[in-house]
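ok, trying the design again with the full structure, not the truncated one.
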């Protein structure tokens, strides 16, 4: 094995890919392995928000909220194609948290993070504002504030792409079987889940960013049989037929003091969630429970004029958040902040573990991790990601409309929805897909809903996509509309054209 990487990252979620990107950009040699597809775990099952976490103020997590509020605008500038501002409407009535407490919380929310781009809080008269139309008449007053929406899985993929562009090796569908100390480095045995072939790589440092699997990795691959560091908390969502026509989202408070959101989703739907409950079960088989469905339907029905029923549901999804186990009595009270812990004595090879974290603070987590890396390997480059762009996002926060207009002008044969989806997904990289096409036929086969052969080939060649699920659920959100026949045809095409990863020769 001629190459000894500086850093080996386990896990291709947002934290693993964010760390790999930051480290590669500073000049460290990096290899990352993900046992499934990128963002196939917790990172693609979020509520799709870049937010400060208004409710965390109640648990006095002011530092976490401040970090997250600052990151909203940093990430918005980094990736304005997949992140955009959204206004949230918080209806109020006497049975919920008192109005003075909400005003105080929103005052802190407006001022803790040095907000410059996003508009501040305002009071809304629901009797006259469009946000009041879908709500029950008993709600007459609301508070409206700002946060951001994110295409979560694409955020992961774009970090991986940029990490690779800066020299990192990214291997998906590659499982870590074992890691052993051999002399001055780790010898890590990997197995391809496609072919079953095994391979060894060497590294000076291991970063365990396995998300919900972080303890399992410590136990099975690193021999730490007593590892118990994370509290697994299930969060489930339902997607229903559209409940309102405006672009604002709702922040609802339940009588049990828990909160959930109702958010515009993929033009024709409303996303409702999330739940918070401790999870015990197989991480590969997380599903929404009937109790969670009832809870979300009942909670939303307290607010909307037209009740939300099971018949409205078109899709559900569930994920498991690996929160650091801080001993909180309730799942919703467990800290959402991250903890980074270095294992290994002074003379030992080191493993640095990631416990917890939020998608909003992934970049800050990566910077904190690099401080620990410097303590082990020595410093290389300086922090650099704060004013960087993710691939395709170099057009700036105010440039989306102009970019969309250019794509529509250069490629007038595209349907309006198709051109907007391409720009929202790829930003300037949309031109790499469309190239010099003059007609729809020049983009190749249409697999449905404007998903062209040219786009699928781009995803195979540049974004590690190998299956239809990779494309329609993670690289896009088209799966909610795709028919089974369309998905089968796409899978057939991808099986014929997918690019298997091959490790460099030893």
């Amino acid at each position: 094995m001629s190459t000894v990487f500086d850093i080996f990252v386990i896990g291709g979620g947002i934290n693993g890919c964010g760390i790999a990107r930051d480290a590669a950009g500073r000049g460290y040699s990096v290899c990352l392995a993900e046992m499934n597809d990128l963002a196939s775990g917790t990172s693609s099952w979020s509520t799709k928000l870049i937010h400060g976490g208004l409710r965390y103020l109640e648990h006095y997590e002011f530092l976490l909220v401040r970090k997250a509020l600052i990151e909203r605008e940093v990430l918005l500038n980094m990736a304005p194609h997949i992140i955009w501002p959204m206004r949230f409407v918080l209806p109020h009535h006497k049975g919920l948290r008192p109005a003075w407490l909400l005003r105080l919380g929103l005052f802190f929310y407006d001022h803790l993070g040095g907000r410059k781009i996003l508009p501040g809080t305002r009071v809304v008269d629901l009797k006259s504002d469009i946000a009041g139309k879908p709500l029950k008449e008993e709600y007459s007053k609301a508070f409206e504030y700002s946060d951001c929406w994110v295409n979560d899985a694409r955020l992961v993929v774009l970090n991986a792409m940029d990490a690779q562009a800066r020299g990192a090796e990214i291997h998906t569908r590659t499982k870590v079987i074992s890691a052993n100390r051999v002399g001055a480095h780790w010898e890590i045995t990997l197995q391809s889940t496609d072919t079953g072939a095994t391979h060894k790589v060497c590294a000076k440092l291991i970063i365990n960013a396995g998300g919900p699997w972080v303890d399992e990795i410590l136990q099975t691959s690193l021999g730490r049989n007593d590892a118990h560091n994370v509290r697994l908390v299930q969060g489930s969502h339902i997607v229903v037929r559209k409940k309102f026509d405006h672009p604002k989202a709702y922040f609802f408070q339940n009588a049990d003091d828990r909160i959930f959101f109702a958010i515009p989703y993929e033009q024709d739907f409303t996303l409702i969630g999330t739940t918070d409950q401790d999870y015990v079960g197989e991480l590969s088989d997380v599903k929404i429970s009937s109790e969670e469905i009832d809870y979300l339907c009942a909670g939303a029905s307290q607010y909307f004029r037209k009740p939300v029923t099971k018949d409205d549901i078109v899709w559900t999804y569930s994920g498991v958040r690996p929160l650091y186990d801080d001993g909180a009595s309730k799942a919703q009270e467990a800290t959402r902040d991250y903890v980074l812990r270095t294992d290994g004595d002074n003379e030992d090879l080191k493993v640095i573990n990631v416990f917890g974290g939020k998608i909003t603070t992934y970049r800050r987590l990566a910077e904190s991790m690099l401080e620990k890396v410097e303590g082990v390997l020595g410093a290389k480059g300086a922090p650099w990601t704060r004013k960087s762009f993710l691939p395709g996002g170099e057009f700036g926060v105010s440039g989306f409309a102009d970019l969309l207009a250019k794509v529509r002008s250069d490629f007038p044969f595209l349907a309006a929805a198709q051109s907007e989806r391409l720009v929202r997904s790829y930003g300037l990289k949309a031109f790499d897909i469309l190239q010099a096409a003059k007609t729809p036929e020049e983009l190749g086969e249409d697999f449905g809903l404007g998903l062209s052969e040219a786009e699928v080939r781009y995803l195979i060649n540049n974004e590690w996509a190998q299956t239809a699920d990779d494309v329609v659920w993670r690289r896009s959100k088209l799966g909610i509309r795709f028919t089974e026949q369309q998905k089968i045809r796409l899978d057939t095409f991808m099986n014929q054209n997918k690019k298997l990863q091959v490790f460099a020769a030893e």
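Keeping the full-length input from now on. The chain is about 30% helix and 25% strand.
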